[in-house]
Amino acid sequence: MLRGRSLSVTSLGGLPRWEAQLPVEDLLLFEVAWEVTNKVGGIYTVIQTKAKTTADEWGDNYFLIGPYFEHNMKTQVEQCKPVNDAIGRAVSTMNKHGCQVHFGRWLIEGSPYVVLFDIGYSAWNLDKWKGDLWEACSVGIPYHDQEANDMLIFGSLTAWFLKEVTDHADGKHVIVQFHEWQAGTGLILSRAQKLPIATVFTTHATLLGRYLCAANTDFYNHLDKFNIDKEAGERQIYHRYCMERASVHCAHVFTTVSEITAIEAEHMLKRKPDVITPNGLNVKKFSAVHEFQNLHAMYKARIQDFVRGHFYGHLDFDLEKTLFLFIAGRYEFSNKGADIFLESLSRLNFLLRMHKSDVTVVVFFIMPAKTNNFNVETLKGQAVRKQLWDTAHSVKEKFGKKLYDALLRGEIPDMNTILDRDDLTIMKRAIFSTQRQSLPPVTTHNMIDDSTDPILSTIRRIGLFNGRTDRVKVILHPEFLSSTSPLLPMDYEEFVRGCHLGVFPSYYEPWGYTPAECTVMGIPSVTTNLSGFGCFMQEHVADPAAYGIYIVDRRFCSLDDSCNQLTKFLYGFCKQSRRQRIIQRNRTERLSDLLDWRYLGRYYQHARHLTLSRAFPDKFHMEPTSPPTTEGFKYPRPSSVPPSPSGSQVSSPQSSDGEDEHEDDRYDEEEEAERDRLNIKSPFTLGRVPHGKKKLHGEYKN
């Protein structure tokens, strides 16, 4: 038996381990989320990427619970029979009592088991379950809130399923982790029924926090001043807020994804998180060390092809001295930092023009919005580019044949006669076809709300119209990227690899998967100290900018100061030589180990052990330990000069090829890489919310 098993944290092999590992064969682990097999937002990425690491550790005792959607079931799930007797009985019992429960393997890495509930099939029981929720926590759900009603059905089915499982668990202890308020009613009802389960509730962003930030309130400066009930009521989400808050307080362990969200949750939900569980990714290393650099060059060439077509007739800049920047995500103009980014681009354009720089910056906004269809002028540009390519190839073949014949005869061809009049006519017609009377469009699609669109309105205000004298060009692509697109036929990952810098100056970003994905692909990025990712990197990297992570201060600076800082980062990046960018990408890619679930999964492991000790204190207990910290675990400042590649550059934005060969003479990549590999193995302990960072107010609104 497991009675009295002692748990304590130590460091073993460079990663946190438990002195007495719990045998997973005596436990069942469930994760409950609305985004299991159902892609809606970032939680889908969390669960999908973490599944392999968790399945490798827990084997057949790990299960995911989510909603059933026919299309997702057909394309993502392989149906099978449960191998666990308790799970099989629970599925069978619920199906016999008027529910529709599906079981199978999710066809992703790790192939975890999934239990999916058909929400619509069980809607007949909604009124009864509303009564159960009212009796459990006095929260009522209005009939017109379809989403909240669906979440109640989902939660009620989850609680029913967990009751059936625990009734036949044969002595196995059950751990259940609930993600976000959508899964929270299952936690509330399970605790109301006093089910023998250990519960963890994870919030990836507070419900009210999203609403307040979207309304441009002075959020971080007034965290302790908001009348929570009043704010939730005015936005007609009071019942949802109550469901979320009840879930938080019912859980044995409360976790969140970042330090900044922990501070937010403490004020919004009135409970301090027990553990911070950062989000990770499945990091795949290439067998060839610099393969990611080769991919960058390959996909950059494809972006250059698009730019050639988009700017036809105005292609008076050198594509080899052109940098590609991008911002991507939900179209939340202020929350995602598109407002401050555009203002910084205006200032960057002024600096590059003032210094007569030969560097051009092309910026992509990948933010889905309502459109009618592709912009005709944009489609025409790609057609013109293709026509020119075909013309050049036909002339080249004709030229090559004449040259070949002349060489066979032992003659040096007369270059004045090798191209006849027809060839010159074809080339002149091709040149005339590239003439255009208008400026290159700033958007690739016809926007439905062109006059009120925030990005386009700001572009009109700051005057970035892709003119010939502009050193910063802007392209709004209001649609998700796809390899089947006739305009820019690239998947998101391919596009990111082809860019030079991702810019995400978010005001509200509980974690931030976009800069994390850039890091894993070896692409530098800009983030902020109001994003979970930015706080995480500040904590783990001594000089983030040297590793290609630029962190804008949006918390303790005014909006204008933050904008100036972002402009400084962008201008410094433009001043880098090609070699410096290569060095920086190497360093950025090495940070990917920090974001690997094989490392970050230990934070979830810590939360599970803690919830077991609280749910079953007579069987599991944790020995007292000092407050966990990550002190002493940091990537050091690189020893090469300059520490940040833009640091020692002269005012001229572009270095010569000769300078590339001799700069950073002290840079030894192998030595740096080996030191970083050893550093990530340094002992450290898992962390909760730092005690000294509980109340950090007085921030400016950004």
UniProtKB/TrEMBL annotation:
An annotated Gene Ontology molecular function: alpha-1,4-glucan glucosyltransferase (UDP-glucose donor) activity
Gene Ontology BP annotations: glycogen biosynthetic process
UniProt keyword annotations, A-Z: Allosteric enzyme, Glycogen biosynthesis, Glycosyltransferase, Phosphoprotein, Transferase
Alphabetical list of Pfam families matching this protein: Glycogen_syn (PF05693)
EC code(s) of this entry: 2.4.1.11
Enzyme class: transferase
Catalyzed chemical reaction(s): [(1->4)-alpha-D-glucosyl](n) + UDP-alpha-D-glucose = [(1->4)-alpha-D-glucosyl](n+1) + UDP + H(+)
Feature: compositional bias, Low complexity: 646-656
Name recorded for this polypeptide: Glycogen [starch] synthase
Lineage of the species this protein comes from: Eukaryota, Metazoa, Chordata, Craniata, Vertebrata
